[in-house]
Amino acid sequence: MTKLWQAPLKLSAYIEKRPLTQAFHITGYTFTESEVLVVCLQDGERMGRGEGLGVYYRRDTPASMLEQIETVRDRIELGITREQLQSLLPAGGARNALDCALWDLEAKREGKPVWQLAGMPAPQPLLTTFTLSADEPEAMAESARQLSDARALKLKLTNDDRNAERVRAVRAARPGAWMMVDANQGFTRASLLEALPAFVEAGVAVVEQPFPVGNERWLDGLNSPIPLAADESVQDHRDLKNLVGRVQVINIKLDKCGGLTEALTMAQMARELGFKLMVGNMGGSSWSMAPAFVLGSLCSVVDLDGPVYVQTDRTPGVSYQDGRIWCPDSVWGGPVATADDGKAP
């Protein structure tokens, strides 16, 4: 149980936009910028910060998140624990940004990094996937070649009949890379079964969210030779039991579940139910990756490449080398304040 600090908090919340290096395509959506809500909680000279993008397909946007936070501003500024926050706001980007700001502030109050406060082992660099935007097969293959440092690739697919071609083209371009595919709800049962032989041949290790939310019954009796992961079908811990026997991997995203506090609870429950874990991201800067990096040590699949696709990141920020992400305590969640701590408006 976290402490309820008696000193009042000063809350600052604002929206930032960071252009992407190029347009990013998935099933049904195209993104050209990363829009985030930044939350700063100040207690005297100490400041904690968090970043949230929300969940675009639930219309959970930075603008709506900011409105949510303003409705509870007075309650937050009186002082609040992370546990109390869970019932104050619903799962989503607003609670994520606030929860991560509270974790960061607690690290500075306690003089301990967040990973230690969370009872996690000392962090190590984590192998991460690098994501290929859905495109023509040869364009995706060229993108894969350009990501020469990547050792693991995540291919965004779409709801047409060229997904097998995309996978074959990328595999030919990067024969040694670990590979997963993400349909973002774009398959039917028939189209998945048609594509699976090509996926098996290409050595695809995971198929993520093949079917639309609400059609989880399509997973029943599928007997896929490749492990299946749930993303949109699992928002927080309440969705886990519905997926037992249907998928093997649970993709936990802090923007979906509402922060690191819920993510850690969700991870424990998912493991008890026999799922393997994946940590993902909705994009954003290093301030979005850093809390998810804490969770990453529990996960068999790590997808934390968001800063790779924005034109400018935080300073200090996460680093990528030899296909791995490394997040020092100085980025977020460390016991010592950094220069970025003073960037509240």
- The tally of domains stands at 2
* N-to-C series of helices and strands: EEEHHHHHEEHEHEHEEEHHEHEEE
Rg calculated over all Cα atoms: 20 Å
Uncertain residue ranges: 341-345
Q: Can you tell me the CATH class of the largest domain? A: Alpha Beta
Numbering strands along the chain, what is their spatial order in the largest sheet?
5-6-7-8-9-10-11-12
Helix content: 25-40%
| Share of β-strand residues | 15-25%
Task: Report what the structure shows.
- With 345 residues, the chain is α/β, with parallel strands linked by helices.
- The chain has 2 domains: 104 residues, Enolase-like, N-terminal domain (Enolase-like, domain 1, 2-Layer Sandwich); 201 residues, Enolase-like C-terminal domain (TIM Barrel), CATH 3.20.20.120.
- The chain is built from 11 helices and 14 strands.
- The strands form 3 sheets. The protein has an 8-stranded parallel sheet with strand order 5-6-7-8-9-10-11-12.
- Strand 7, helix 8 and strand 8 form a beta-alpha-beta unit.
- The longest helix has 18 residues.
- The chain is globular, with a radius of gyration of 20 Å.
- The two termini are 31 Å apart.
- The C terminus is likely disordered.
Keywords for this entry:
TIM Barrel; 23% strand; three-stranded antiparallel beta sheet; 345 residues; eight-stranded parallel beta sheet; globular; 31% helix; 2 domains; Enolase-like, domain 1; alpha/beta; disordered C terminus; single chain
Write the layout of secondary structure elements.
Blueprint: E1 10-26, E2 29-43, E3 46-52, H1 62-71, H2 73-77, H3 82-88, H4 93-110, H5 114-117, E4 126-127, E5 130-132, H6 137-146, E6 152-156, H7 163-173, E7 178-182, H8 189-201, E8 204-208, E9 228-230, E10 249-252, H9 254-257, H10 260-272, E11 276-279, H11 286-296, E12 301-302, E13 319-321, E14 324-326
Parallel strand pairs: 5-6, 6-7, 7-8, 8-9, 9-10, 10-11, 11-12
Antiparallel strand pairs: 1-2, 2-3, 4-14, 13-14
